[in-house]
Amino acid sequence: MTGRICGTGFCVPERVMDNKELSGMVDTSDEWIRERTGIERRRIITEETTVSMAAKAAERALADAGISPEQVELIITATISSNVILPCTACEVQKEIGAAWAACFDVNAACCGFLTAFQIAQTYIAAGVYRTILIIGSESLSKLTDWTDRGTCILFGDGAGAAVLTAGEGRSFRGILHSDGSKGAALSCSGSHWKADENDSGFMKMDGREVFKFAVKRVPEVIHEVLKLNDCSIDDIDYFVVHQANRRIIESVAKRLDLDAEKFPMNLQEYGNTSSASIPILLDELRRNGVLKKGNRILLAGFGAGLSWGAGILDWIIE
């Protein structure tokens, strides 16, 4: 058996912060941000929380799949920025949506979070442990952002995306995940509740140059690796749904693979980098805009703090 996505959903905050507004907070401009990142605006929570966005995205994914909350056997939520520590975010989502029979846990794999949850879900389904799994990526990165740091505040946004996986017949694809903890300082965050020392702000810190070099090298490598592992050609892939971090990174990955950038859809211009939420938000937009067609083969690729990176493949079954 393999896990097949049968429903998707997403939720983003009402408040929009565009580059013009941001340029009034730090020394930057709309042109500067667009040129270096491709980002034009991002969503910022006001009344929303990581849990509330996750629950709304989950409800929409379940409705899209035609599955009731009571049918969900497992909820996996990927997040680094939850408004709760205990109970875990997934348990709070379970309560909110009424998925009374679901086991629940969170994963922290930063921008690889949704991909990690996806691969865990696939493993459970292949082993016959669960047949219906809800996976969610939800982030409130604005709460971890130093709004005086131009190098990071221009990048991040808030939002949530979800997908329902059900067991079914079909080709089972093996995914790949990698990590290199020795490079973790390139993108880090101690959290305001556990600062390393008096000089630690508790906000996200990033060496943008190192992260860029890491991503444009490792993402093409892991794409080739997962294709080889699954005996697939790069021509077999209809779309590459890559973590939405930076337009330059995604375009560089496409160039290194000698592929048309149109195979790498992007929506980061609207939402910025939403970490674990970026892949499911993009999947839902592509699905609802009619871009994805039944029978499409999609390659998912993530990269980020850890440093971690990975890839997986799925066949799209939704009409």
Topology (SSEs and partners):
Elements: E1 2-11, E2 15-18, H1 19-23, H2 30-37, E3 41-44, H3 50-65, E4 74-78, H4 89-97, E5 103-107, H5 113-126, E6 132-140, H6 150-153, E7 158-168, E8 176-179, E9 187-188, E10 205-206, H7 208-229, E11 239-242, H8 247-256, H9 268-271, H10 278-288, E12 297-304, E13 308-315
Parallel strand pairs: 4-5, 4-6, 11-12
Antiparallel strand pairs: 1-7, 2-3, 6-7, 8-13, 9-10, 12-13
Helix pairs in contact: 3-4, 7-8
Description:
The chain is an alpha/beta fold. Helices cover 32% and strands 24% of the residues. The chain contains ten helices and 13 strands. It has helices spanning 19-23, 30-37, 50-65, 89-97, 113-126, 150-153, 208-229, 247-256, 268-271, 278-288, and strands at residues 2-11, 15-18, 41-44, 74-78, 103-107, 132-140, 158-168, 176-179, 187-188, 205-206, 239-242, 297-304, 308-315. The strands form four sheets. The chain has a five-stranded mixed beta sheet with strand order 1-7-6-4-5, sandwiched between helices. Strands 8-13-12-11 form a four-stranded mixed beta sheet, with helices on both faces. Strand 12 (297-304) and strand 13 form a beta hairpin. Helix 7 (208-229) packs across helix 8 (247-256). The chain is globular. The two termini are 21 Å apart. The model has no long low-confidence stretch (mean pLDDT 96).
Spatial extent as radius of gyration? 18 Å
**Unreliable residue stretches:** none
What is the rounded distance between the termini?
A: 21 Å
Overall strand count = 13
Strand content: 15-25%
**Which whole number gives the mean pLDDT?**
96
Order of strands across the main sheet: 1-7-6-4-5
- What is the helix/strand order? EEHHEHEHEHEHEEEEHEHHHEE
Q: What about the largest sheet?
A: 5 strands, mixed
Q: Based on helices, strands and strand pairing, what is the structural class? A: alpha/beta
Number of DSSP helical runs: 10
Percent in helix: 25-40%
Overall shape: globular
